[in-house]
Amino acid sequence: MGTVPSLEEAEKLLEEYNQDAFHLKHGKIVSGVMGYFAKEYDPENVEFWKVAGLLHDLDFEKYPEQHCTKEQEIMRKRGYDEKLIHAVASHGYGLTVDVKPEHIMEKILYATDELTGLIGAVALMHPSKSVRDMKLKSVKKKFRQSTFAAGCSREVIQKGADMLGWTLDDLISRTITAMQTLVDELGI
């Protein structure tokens, strides 16, 4: 069994491979969302969930063509636990890798990664420029507009909800609530 880095170590590793402010903030948002859900589904492992969320796009900025593949190599060289490596890589299932999300944590990471981007884009359109006052209706309206935040795969979001056995509305509502807990910390 390998090691699992602390949140601080994971953040330093993320910053080693990513300099773009958007990517760094996205990692922190997904980490926070994962921590929110961990409190409900796996309260003894909140930090593990948060580390997986923080590192999920570790290789995206430097190695976009090898996304979810290169990060496995980077983490194995550091002796990280295979559970963490599988979790991080599984968010690219069917897109860049064949590593299937199996654990509820992996399914939540898969489902919320793209969704946090969509919700963040909707927030920028709000007068408040924040998720603080975000409503399901606003996100659903933009979800149906395929040209809005076109890089956020609606198919992946729907597949993630299906994997979890949740309705799309439930996934969106719960992810909005999770992101609202991060408003003060991350300014979203």
Distance between the termini: 36 Å
- Helix run count: 10
Order of helices and strands: HHHHHHHHHH
Proportion of beta-strand residues: under 5%
Q: Are there runs of 5+ residues with pLDDT below 50, and where?
A: none
Tally of strands: 0
The gross shape turns out to be globular
Helix content: 55-70%
Which structural category fits the helices and strands? mainly alpha
Radius of gyration over alpha carbons?
A: 15 Å
**Main β-sheet, in a few words?**
none
**Average pLDDT across residues?**
96
Q: State the domain count.
A: 1
Can you put this structure into words, describing what you see?
By secondary structure, the protein is mostly helical. The protein has one domain (7-186). Helix content is 62%, strand content 0%. It contains 10 helices and no strands. The protein has helices at 7-17, 21-41, 46-55, 70-77, 82-90, 104-125, 136-143, 154-164, 168-180, 183-186. Helix 3 packs across helix 5, helix 4 packs antiparallel against helix 5 (82-90) and helix 6 (104-125) packs across helix 9. The longest helix has 22 residues, at 104-125. It is globular, with a radius of gyration of 15 Å. The model has no long low-confidence stretch (mean pLDDT 96).
Map the helices and strands.
Blueprint: H1 7-17, H2 21-41, H3 46-55, H4 70-77, H5 82-90, H6 104-125, H7 136-143, H8 154-164, H9 168-180, H10 183-186
Helix pairs in contact: 1-3, 2-3, 2-6, 3-5, 4-5, 5-6, 6-8, 6-9
